[in-house]
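Predict the structure of 3',5'-cyclic-nucleotide phosphodiesterase.
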Amino acid sequence: MQIRVLGCSGSIAAGCRTTAFLLDDDVLIDAGTGVGDLTLDELAGIQDILLTHSHLDHVLGVPLLADSVMRRRTGRPPIRVHGLPATLDALRQHLFNGQIWPDFTRLPSAERPILTLHPFDTGEVLNLGARRVEVLPAQHTVPAVGFAVLASQGAWVFTGDTGPNEALWQRLAQMPVAHLVIETAFRNDEHRLAALSRHLHPSALGQELARLQDGSTVWITHIKPGELDTVMSEITALAPRHSVQALSAGQRLTLT
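Done. Here is the predicted structure for 3',5'-cyclic-nucleotide phosphodiesterase.
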């Protein structure tokens, strides 16, 4: 299995794309602006989209992808969009409502739509072909999750957007973690804003990583444009015992 980083920024600017990962060539994990770097053929090959939560920087690519590939997928099964019930309800009410965007769960016809919506629960394991993806708990301002792509040599874990998260560490204590992709959206001097918006800042990240088992590589995601050097220097100052690096768009991680 391979994970391709399409976007990992906390917002947009030149060279900065919001959260999206491609698992192999047919599963999207979140659908931020990074989805736009896929070719039309690659977009048409997507079979499943897994959403951590309903915020725009993580779901923007879903309606645009549907519009782009509808004609190329004529006669093929719909693209399955997976999320918490609250996430899927938000898509129905606020995105696919005919005002913000057409309802592609009923287009090109109600009988053969380009998208179908599939709810999951925290703790559920999704079987996507031969791949298994566990839904992990997250703590955010809207109902949210993370994901663990399970592999024999250790999981690739993505926290999604989250503040301090005791339930996550209880689960990860039972799971070999090869790669941890964890957000750090704010600098330390913005700790009040981080707490209000349920994101992490470097000091809070350090407390979270103290719970992580040895042998895991840590990748930092969701840093705001222009803040990379400051956030990473504050993380480095924590002297974490793990290998900690900033994630970047275009990276590919192989899971075995």
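The mean pLDDT is 96.
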